[in-house]
Model the fold of this input.
Amino acid sequence: MPAKTILTLLFLVSLCVVVVLGLRALPREVGLEMAASNDEVLVAAAALPGGTLLRAKDVAWQPTAGRVQPGQITRPANLAGNQNFGLEQQARAEVYGAALRSSVVGGEPIRRSVIVKPGDRDFLQVVLAPQARAIAIPVATGGASTGILYPGDRVDVILTQTFKNDLPLARRSVGETVVQNLRVLAVDPIDSRPNGAANGFGRTVTLEVTPDQAERVNVAAELGKLSLTLRSASAINGAGAASTSVMTSGMRPIWAGDVSPALGDVVPTKTVIAEQTIVEVIRGTKAAIVKSQ
Done:
């Protein structure tokens, strides 16, 4: 066979191989582009500094402008408006309560590599403000037990004490705010304390405190039961990640009598022992004590 013919056949075979490979790759590329256009990616709703605890208002869904990059958090575009759909909740759960390792600009995709979640080894190192400390406290009642607290919220710590002695009823119970405007860093999962109701506690909450506040909270935990009250959004918006909470020196405690004035009219019942006359009777060298009836 002439060499020219062999070269022609080799060329035709090579051309056929190229065409086949091109046809196989074409639908895949089209499919990738369609998949990318049908996905939305989770982005920062505004510029966020490093250490921010992500909340619902901090993130938003945005259509992808091309292919989805590795590490980005996505959802199908047809889930828009369906907040209760399982995939929607799963995607948002990846970032809610997590902290940013570094700053992001508005519209920048939230990548898994730039967030750290509660329970991760370096979570507190990322989220704590300079010179701040973290303290975990068991909460008996209030927001944590009803599930209304989330990382990033601002709370006050209330101490409730009950005295078991001969004090008047109006003075046997007292409540007072010991620290104000603390930032919630983490709230333990509901199922992490299965016997919480039985042992008198609700959930464990981790708070950001100063060294002095940490000592106050520790002493308060020894004195009685602690509960948390949620502050308004203005307290959250008005306090940055590095802000310190306000001490509550001078605040008047609330006694049981302040809550229920009726307790002031209740007189504790006491056992009255009638006095008896004691007479000593001496008969010769023997003495005996006789109590009169």
User: Anything to note?
Assistant: The helical segments are 3-37, 86-93, 123-127, 143-146, 211-223, 233-237, 256-259.
